[in-house]
Write a structure and sequence with these properties.
Structural class: mainly alpha
Strand content: under 5%
Distance between the termini: 12 Å
Shape: globular
Helix content: over 70%
Number of strands: 0
Radius of gyration: 19 Å
Order of helices and strands: HHHHHHHHHH
């Protein structure tokens, strides 16, 4: 058994200690090192793909049809059958393609903690195999369960329950990507391990996630563009929580 697997088994049997204040302080210190660079990268990325999305919409529908009334008819709640399936499929594909880029924030946080210089290429580190495959599988599986269960409740009139189920899946799986890129676990093993870890201290970790979300949303105050520079705090918090619970492994192969 590799050390990471031993650590997961130990957590499963005995749980773990988590210094709440230390995680917050270390996450914030780490965030200060990456805030500007990560924020700029996120802003450029958003603008670039925003332009691609607008160009694609104009190409398909024409600029004359891009008005609120026409756009509204293509919103998810107004779609059924094949169009709805296409909408879900496109969303899942985009999420899978973007997931390795967002995972780059964890790499940036790791470099900051270790005082290693990071560059633009750092954000694309996990588009390499085997990370791309495992992150893609994990994203697909989680989205499949999240979307499927949410739609099941929503179509039966339980919209609130569907939203709660989706939020719980996201919460219990928030350590999945760090377990893949740092723990070298395969996608399914990482998802299971994330659920195990979070279930041992759900209230403490929920409080940390809420603090991270509040910190990320602070960017909306004053000038909405600030959100690009506060979102990295969320990833810094996730990274720090993972690092405090699991630590780092040096294995070079994924453990499937």
């Amino acid at each position: 058994m590799k050390p990471i697997a031993n650590r997961i088994e130990e957590i499963k049997r005995n749980g773990y200690q988590l210094d709440f204040d230390a995680v917050i302080n270390r996450a914030f210190e780490n965030y200060k090192k990456i805030a500007l660079y990560a924020g700029l990268m996120l802003f450029v990325f958003f603008v670039f793909f925003g332009l691609i999305a607008v160009t694609t919409l104009i190409s398909f529908f024409g600029i004359d049809h891009l008005n609120p009334e026409n756009i509204q008819q293509y919103s998810p709640e107004n779609l059924t059958g094949v169009p709805l399936l296409i909408y879900i499929g496109v969303n899942m594909l985009l999420s899978i393609l973007l997931a390795p880029f967002l995972a780059g924030f964890y790499k940036m946080a790791d470099c900051a903690k270790k005082d290693i210089e990071f560059h633009v290429s750092t954000m694309f580190e996990y588009y390499k195999s085997p990370y791309l495959i495992e992150i893609g599988i994990a994203t697909f599986v989680l989205l499949l369960f999240n979307t499927g269960l949410s739609m099941l409740f929503e179509t039966n009139g339980y919209v609130f329950i569907g939203a709660i189920i989706g939020a719980l899946i996201s919460f219990f799986s928030f350590l999945t990507v760090p377990l893949i890129v740092f723990g070298k676990l395969g996608a399914i093993t990482a998802i299971k391990s994330s659920f195990i870890i979070v279930s041992k201290k759900p209230l403490a970790l929920l409080a940390l996630v809420i603090i991270a979300l509040i910190g990320a949303l602070v960017g909306f105050i004053g000038c909405c563009i600030g959100i690009f520079f506060t979102i990295p705090f969320l990833y810094s918090m996730y990274y720090t929580a993972y690092n405090e619970i699991i630590g780092q492994e040096s294995d070079s192969e994924l453990m499937l």
